[in-house]
Amino acid sequence: MARGCEFLGSETAILCGAMSWVSERNLVSAISNAGGFGVIACGAMTPALLDAEIAATKALTAKPFGVNLITMHPQLFDLIAVCARHGVTHVVLAGGIPPKGSVEAIAAGGAKVICFAPTLALGRKLLRSGADALVIEGMEAGGHIGPVSTSVLAQEILPSLADEHLVFVAGGIGRGEAIAGYLEMGAAGVQLGTRFACASESIAHPAFKKAFFRASARDATASVQVDPRLPVIPVRALKNKGTEAFTAKQIEVARKLDSGEVDMGAAQLEIEHYWAGALRRAVIDGDVENGSIMAGQSVGMVAKEEPVADIIAALLAECEGALSARTGTPAVAA
Ligand SMILES: Cc1cc2nc3c(=O)[nH]c(=O)nc-3n(C[C@H](O)[C@H](O)[C@H](O)COP(=O)(O)O)c2cc1C
After folding, report:
1. Does the CB atom of residue 189 touch ligand 1 within 6 A?
2. Is the CB of 192 within 6 Å of ligand 1?
3. Which of 15, 16, 19 for a ligand 1 pocket mutation test, highest count of atoms within 8 Å of Cβ?
4. Are residues 199 and 272 in the same domain?
5. CATH code at position 133
6. Is any atom of ligand 1 closer than 6 Å to the C-beta of 193?
7. CA–CA separation, 312 vs 171, rounded Å?
8. Across the strands, what pairs with 143?
9. Where are the beta strands (DSSP E) in 80-132?
10. For a tag site, which of 76, 262, 315, 332 has the least CB within 10 Å?
11. What's the pTM?
């Protein structure tokens, strides 16, 4: 993990991926204070709200943390300026190919740029365009997902890029043995979301946490696309009434598209706003029936509420145990 730690400025190269509504000051500072790397989820926040969230996080930790910005945010460049003003060290660009000038603007503000690479070709392109590190995220993950599994992405991308570049692996990681495997393949570190979402320091509603503790891997299903003209990015969440309501929402938006009431861009934004609202209902209000309980397939390995420090210690002990077993050296007590 040394390369990853050096890049992040953290003790361990375990990132807690940004989770809208969940990854706010409390969880982010707890992750960074425990030696990991916390990332604020900006989501649909305004620049003023992001400004306040970064300031509040800085008040809780002196360790580095990142900010995750969604590329389709209409005020992306204002948000980048807010990060620069605060001296945020790392900005993660999520939700699509970074728009022209955004990578340069982040670098000009002094921060490192981390991008999601959905394929090897795009990964190469992002690195050429100035990305300092990549995250490859498989479809086992919670939240918005691509079509390919983590294990296949890792095999396709790590052998070509990991020697010379920093690549972090995400999606479906619940235990340290899996971290050991990806490190051996050349990853600089890993990113987990689901495993941290219900930590003691997470502000998620007790009902949201309870749903996680009860769920098994097969409950975390990907949403289906209803209309071939309306390409929606699939979202992995626990099955409930809300996942059914999403199907109805897509039909409603497709009708609006038919009637010319909205264009494709507006239609897709409406879908994204739907998710942001639905996630808030589950995470903040605790409405686990109708809200969206975004969760990855590793949810079955989340059994109880634990402090972030214990989760990180367990992951490191498992990782170290696996690596020592392979080399025949006894594991050092964590
Ligand atoms: C509840 C939840 C909300 C998420 N929200 C976001 C988000 O706003 N932006 C983002 O880039 N990723 C988001 N993700 C993905 C995580 O950052 C992370 O990459 C993912 O959870 C890693 O896979 P895992 O869930 O299998 O550990 C979210 C994941 C979850 C579980």
Report:
1. no
2. yes
3. 19
4. no
5. 3.20.20.70
6. yes
7. 16
8. 236
9. 90-94, 112-116
10. 332
11. 0.95
